[in-house]
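Hi Y.,

Following your request, here is the sequence exactly as I used it, all 205 residues.
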Amino acid sequence: MAVFSHACPYCHLDVAFQVLHERIDPQHNGLWLTCSCPKCYGGVIAKVRGDFPNRSTGSVPGDIRVIPSFVLDSFAPEAPPIEAPDHLPVSVLSAYFEAMHNLDSRHWNSAGMMFRRAIDLATKVLLPESKGDLYKRIDQLATTNDLTPSMQKWAHHIRLEGNAAAHDLEEITEADAQGLQAFTELFLTYQFTLPAMLAAHYSET
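Below is the corresponding structure, written out as tokens. Let me know if you'd prefer a different format.
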């Protein structure tokens, strides 16, 4: 069976889609393909062109992308873009994107570890002179009123859950990972997005 390598818009993994059905597009010298993800079984439709033997993928032993002059004209559905709070430092944004990618891929432990890393990097940006660990930086932010008591409590929660994801035998659950994402987004919005929005507003007045 011919396969077609592409990122799955449902499980967000790089997979070899199985080509289930094809139809010739005589007007544009291509093929319409109906494919299935081998991981989550989600269905996609792709329009491709190339030097296919007998104008078919049936005789291709493996990935059809190796065909000479292969062109992907369209692919549907596309995966929705991953969103993040605005005005994040580059290092924090990178960690948050990796956490979200793991969350979308249902890798709960990896997501938990990367959400913790996003908080860790954020506190380092906020307290560049601090020599303490994440525990001490969270408490220091609370001492200077940069964190409310409830946010301080949640920051410690994500610190502990991130550690658990990395070291404990018991894996964190989907609900745990979703909760970590919600707080991390709130924390980053409070610490970076809102201050930048206020600064932009006052600079215009």
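Residues 44 and 112 are 30 Å apart (CA to CA).

Thanks again,
Q.
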